[in-house]
Specification:
The chain is an alpha+beta fold. The chain has 3 helices and 4 strands, in the order βααββαβ. The chain has a 4-stranded antiparallel beta sheet with strand order 2-3-1-4.
Length: 98
């Protein structure tokens, strides 16, 4: 009886995490009341995707988990269409721990 050679597992792709970081100060100071209300509604309805990266009195730094880079870019465009300054938004992609 012959045995088959041991199969090597394929190399695993590194897991990455993509998120959009939002600086709430930019929303509070530079956008309309409608945009501020939109953000508050978004924040209340998406708690599973949000992580507060830094708590500050005038406004937090909030990370919004995204499915991939394209999703993050689409979400960024939604913020920009509502008048949120570009300096208040940043897309980050980092290697996630396994």
């Amino acid at each position: 009886m012959t045995t088959s050679p041991a199969r090597a597992d394929p190399p695993q792709q590194p897991t990455v995490r993509t998120y959009l970081r939002v600086d709430e100060i930019g929303i509070a100071q530079y956008t309309s009341r409608d945009t501020q209300q939109w953000w508050e509604t978004f924040r209340r309805r998406m708690p599973d995707r949000l992580t507060t990266a830094l708590v500050r009195m005038p406004g937090d730094l909030v990370d919004i988990a995204c499915d991939d880079r394209a999703h993050a870019e689409w979400l960024l465009s939604q913020f920009r269409e509502r008048g949120v300054p570009r300096q208040s938004l940043a897309i980050h992609t980092v290697a996630a721990s396994a």
